[in-house]
Structures are given as C-alpha cells and as structure tokens.
Amino acid sequence: MATKQHCAYCFDTLVAHLNGIRATSSKPIPHSFDGTLEYPLFVTWNKSGRGIDRLRGCIGNFSAMRLDTGLREYAVTSAFHDTRFKPITRSELPRLSCSVSLLTDFEEAEDYLDWDVGKHGVWIEFRNERGRRQTATYLPEIAKDQEWTKEETIDNLLRKGGYEEDITQEMRRSIKLTRYQSQKAHLSYDEYVDM
Length: 195
What we know:
alpha+beta, Glycoprotein, Type 4 Pilin, Dna Ligase, domain 1, 2 domains, 6 helices
C-alpha cells in the first residue's frame, strides 16, 4: 500500500537533488516501508497557488521496480524531465505536494469502454497515422477529476499519445486497452517538514 513515507522519500530525493547532493543507492530507507517490494509506480508533483493545484510533473513506469530505486528515479525524472513542464526549482518547494501511485490489478479490457471512471487507470496502445505503435495512460483519478466521460477520456488519451487525425468510432474500437488500479498516497511540503 502506498504511504506518506513513500512521498517523504520522494521529497528527500528532490531536496537532495536541488541542493546538489547526489541521491545514491545507499540513501537510507525509512523503517516504515520495505524498499525491496516491487511495483509499477508513478510519482506526481503538484504546486498549489491561488487555491488551485497545478500539475508540475508526473512520470512513472509500468514495469515492477524496487520501491527504493523506483521512487528515487521517478521523483527526479518527474520533477526535472517531464517535457510538458520546466524543471522544478528550489523556490517552488514550499508550495509542492507529492503523490505516489503504486499500480496493481492489470487486466486486458474487452473494448475501449470496459473500465470504470474513478476506479481504473487506462493504458492504451494504438497505431498512429503512419502506422507506428503509440501508447498513453491516465491514472485512475484523472478522468474523474476532469469530469470526463469514458469516450472523452479515450479521445484525450489518443491526443496525449500523439494521434493527430480525426478520432472516429473505428479508431476507438481499434485500440487495445489495459485497465489497472492504483494505491495512492499524498503529502504536502508542510506535512513533509513536520514529519
């Protein structure tokens, strides 16, 4: 199960990186979690301001990884290498929050509508206009937070994955969809400092 300690470990890694200290594999693992467990995982950074949380980075992996190395790697990757955003800076720290999502219960869906909004994350595979295989995913909370229908979610995923043509029913039916669930924990910077 994802815990606040997982998020604190990501903050430890981010703070070390921002201070020029290289996070190494010898970084101590908090006693409150077993770093040797393996999960597919995502690390998400959000920044609060004017009563709104804005995404600052979200990257993960669908291959099971040890929690110690996976959290360390994706804390840095999502903070500094999410190409949708500029790298996180030290001045943003007090307004940041971290979420860790441990992915579970992967199932191949019958079709592109065979999943539940708010319960399942969706990962799609499709062929783009040039016949190249593309993929895209949304974590379970995204469709619910955006108040999207299943079809709107799929259409947004196709765009996220780089599909540029008109989205037809035929295109939607051609995708391969894998649904999954997530165990998620969340921690604000203030909570982190108080731990």
